[in-house]
Amino acid sequence: MTDTAPVALLTGSARRIGAASARELHARGYRVIIHYHRSQEAAQALTAELNQQRPDSVACLAADLQDMAAVQQLATAALDIWQRLDVLVNNASSFYPTPIGQATEAQFDELFASNLKAPFFLAQALAPALTESRGVIINIADIHAQRPLKNHTLYCMAKAGNIMLTQSLARELAPHVRVNGIAPGAIIWPEDESELNAEAKAAIVQRIALQRSGEASDIARTLAFLVIDAPYITGQILAVDGGRLLNH
Fold first, then answer.
1. What's the predicted TM-score (pTM) here?
2. Which one of the listed residues 30, 36, 96, 155 is annotated catalytic?
3. Residue 48 forms part of a structural domain
4. For residues 116 and 65, is the Cβ–Cβ distance under 8 A?
5. Cα torsion 124, 127, 128, 129: sign
């Protein structure tokens, strides 16, 4: 591993889409910083797995993205590891229903913290380093930022803000930093089976043009394309949804 290898920080990358994205960038020659909150065991296992493939190429950092002091510390710690940063992926996301009449201020704060507030303050803290490296920011949005999901008003609001954050940062940090977003559709089902039963899943798939759900690798490969192979794309939100938005 050379000292000039680019460095990527991915929030919420111990599992699921974040882990797939970390693996993809690592396979493309990046040094990777895996951020986690509660998934310590998974983060450490992924770090060990990738370091076995290429020694000293992966580190992991813990931070609660609801704590803005911890967000600032995450930015500082990430830069301290290899003294550079080329890619910031704001992937970490809280997601759960908040039906009108039942939503709480604590839920508002939690959903906005991971999906909007932390991405903004991380981008702000790391903008100088990304400017120096002519780097890239990728924000993971959601197709439901454009088409609301019933009973998820707070989440959809936060993701809608995430899209405007992407576009605003793309304008403000140009020409040195490119900023794009990815809006996944049905990629990985919620782990809590009570949130989505088999009948509900089938109904969603029926509305997808490609008639199937996607995989984490679909997001990871799209992310790698935007980071590595799209030097003239900025301020865009790319839906990776199998055509779901065609038949909402």
1. 0.95
2. 155
3. yes
4. no
5. positive
DSSP letters along 157-170, please?
A: HHHHHHHHHHHHHH
| d(C-alpha 136, C-alpha 187), whole Å | 23
The string of pLDDT tens digits covering residues 186-214 is: 887 776 655 667 787 788 888 888 889 89
> In terms of C-beta distances under 8 Å and separation of at least 24 residues, what long-range contacts does 228-231 make, across chains too?
228/28, 230/178, 230/180, 231/178
Residue 155 known to be catalytic? yes
The token pair at 27 is 């396979």
Quick check: is 200 in a domain?
yes
Q: How many CA atoms lie less than 13 Å away from 154 in the CB half-sphere?
A: 22
- The CATH number for 74's domain is 3.40.50.720
* 163: in domain: yes
Give 128-156 pLDDT, tens digit per residue. 999 999 999 999 999 999 999 999 999 99
Residue 105 placed within a domain? yes
How many structural domains does the chain have? Answer: 1
The residue segments making up the domain with residue 167 are: 7-247
